[in-house]
Every structure is written in C-alpha cells, then in structure tokens.
Amino acid sequence: MNGFVTRSLDEIRFWSRIMKEHSLFLRLGFRCEDTQLIQEANQFYSIFEQIEAKSHAFTANADPRQIEAFNAEVHNAASHIWVFKRKVLGLILSCKLPGANNFPLLVDHTSREANYFRNRLAELNSGQLEPIHDAIIDENVFFLKIMADHAKFIGHLLDPSERKLVDQAREFSHDFDQLLWQAQDLSSMRPQSQTGPLLSQFLDQNRVSVASLRDFKKTARDLIEACRIKSIIHPLLADHVYREAERFLEIIEMFESSLTRNAPPDLSDWH
Ligand SMILES: [Fe+2]
Ligand SMILES: [Fe+2]
After folding, report:
1. Distance (Å) from CA 264 to ligand 1 centroid
2. Ligand 2 geometric centre to CA of 118 (Å)
3. Which ligand is nearest to the CA of 146?
4. What's the confidence (pLDDT) of residue 263?
5. How many angstroms is it from 262 CA to the middle of ligand 2?
6. Ligand 2 centroid from CA 146, angstroms
7. Measured between alpha carbons, how far is residue 136 from residues 126, 209, 231 in Å?
8. Which InterPro entries does its entry note (predicted)?
C-alpha cells in the first residue's frame, strides 16, 4: 500500500463529487436566459463526473506515476472551475445577473473549496508537505470558515416562517464565527502557540462544535428529504454540507490521534 496513492484517491473521490454538485447548484441558481453560463456549468458537471468515476476505477495498488498524472489532470480541472466560479462571482457583484439565485458568499465559498482541493493536489504531487503543527491550525482555519458559512446559508435558505430552525442556524453561525476568531488568534501566536496541550485543547473544542453542527445538518437533511419543513434548500445541498462536516470531523480525529500517539507526531496519516 502506498500512502501517496491512497491519500490522493481519497481526496479526489471526496472533492470531485463536491465539485460536480457545485456545478449543479450553480446551474440551478442561474436565470433561464443565462444559457452560456448554464452550458458551462453542465460541462463542469460532466468533467467532474468523469473524474469521480475514474478515481473509483483506480485501486490502492495503482502505479504512483499514474496517480501523479491523474492528480495533475484533476488539478487542472479544479483550477478551471475555480476561474469559472470567480467569474460568476464578478458578474453577481457587478449586478450583471439580477434575479439570479446564488448568494455571492455561496459562490465565493465554493471557489474556496475548489482552491483548497487544488492546493491539496499540488501539495501531494510536489511532496512538499506541511508540518503537522501548521496543518492543524491551517486546516481548522479553513474548515471553521466553511462551517460558519454553511450555518449562514442554512439560516437564509430556510423559510423565514421556520423560526425555531432559523434561530438554531443563527446560533451555529455565531458559535463558528467565534471559533474561527479563536483559530486565527492561535495562528497569529505561531509558533509559540503550537504546544501539545494548546493544540489538543483546540482540536477538542472544535470537534465538539463540529459534531453538534453535523447532527443539526443531518436532522435538517432528513426533514428536507421527507418534505417536513419549508425551505428552498435542495435536498442534495443539505446532504452536501452534511458530508463536508463529516469530512472536517474525520480530519480533526486524525490530527487528535497523531497528537496523542507519539511526540514528535507521526506524519504518516496526514500525508
Ligand atoms: Fe461544497
Ligand atoms: Fe461547503
């Protein structure tokens, strides 16, 4: 088993499905007359659908050189969808798409996820791996912002008459904004802040909040699927944000086990 191969395939399997779904969400938010944009979104959908299928066709025993080429190909696709998302953001912010239904923050958010995916692939291929004490802070800063955004999207896409759920979403938004500030404080105090006890407490606190947001998203997803609540949230979007919270939790747990297993930390899981 090759760590580079399994790690690459794991990233691509997860994020290519995410990119495919972003293409669908963007398309659903365009107006009927935006035929060019709709066509571009459809093209990205099929590109990432093919990448996803290809990633599942490879096994852990694949030739690392083949995976390196695949990573480069996917990196290229992720760069292109990033450019597309930033173009759409520019059109929305300059009021060229009045009446379209994608929030600017959502488009920006999906572009940040594309950028993250692209950077992970570049990192894997270059072998330039971030030390785990930096990865712990950087991954958390990235994902806490993602989680804070999700809470805001849910709050704004639920029907305003779902007062209780909207309140809950708002509380999560506040909670994650606070956690994000804390993470940025820890980041600014680097490298002195990167002690075992501080990093472990940081992960512990984030894990508790992410687990509770993940449960909220799961409930929302089930209610939306069963048509029990009023919203304009696509069931696939509800599932999508739930999966991203699960991903973050897995990353936190992986960091926690590397921290507790030994010192200095064993980097093999992360890399
Ligand atoms: Fe996403
Ligand atoms: Fe997201």
Report:
1. 33
2. 15
3. 2
4. 53
5. 32
6. 6
7. 20, 16, 35
8. CotB-like (IPR021328)
Query: How far is ligand 1, taken at its centre, from the CA of residue 107, in Å?
Result: 10
Ligand nearest the Cα of residue 236 is 1
Positive or negative, the CA dihedral 17, 19, 25, 28 is negative
Q: What is the CATH number of domain 130-266?
A: 1.20.1260.120
Give the pLDDT of residue 21.
Answer: 98
Q: Do 101 and 28 meet the contact criterion of CB atoms below 8 Å apart?
A: yes
Q: Which amino acid is at 1?
A: M
* Residues 108-131: tens digit of each pLDDT: 999 999 999 999 999 999 998 889
Residue 262 has what pLDDT?
A: 56
Identify the nearest ligand to the CA of 143 by its number. Answer: 2
Place of tokens 């600014």: 188
Q: One fold for both 1-128 and 130-266?
A: yes
Contacts of 231 (CB under 8 A, 6+ apart): 157, 158, 159, 162, 224
- Condensed to tens digits (0 to 9), the pLDDT of residues 167-202 reads 999 999 999 999 999 999 999 999 999 999 999 999
Query: Could you give the CA distance from residue 121 to residue 137 in angstroms, rounded to a whole number?
Result: 19
- The structure's pTM equals 0.94
Gap from CA of 168 to ligand 1 centroid (Å): 21
Smallest-distance ligand from the CA of 217 = 2
How far, in Å, from the CA of 143 to the mean position of ligand 2?
9
| Ligand nearest to the Cα of 81, by number | 1
Query: What was the pLDDT predicted at 265?
Result: 43
Sign, CA torsion 24/175/213/246: positive
- From the CA of 238, how far away is ligand 2's center (Å)? 10
Multiple choice CATH, 1-128, 3.40.50.1000, 1.10.340.30, 1.20.1260.120, 1.20.1250.20: 1.20.1260.120
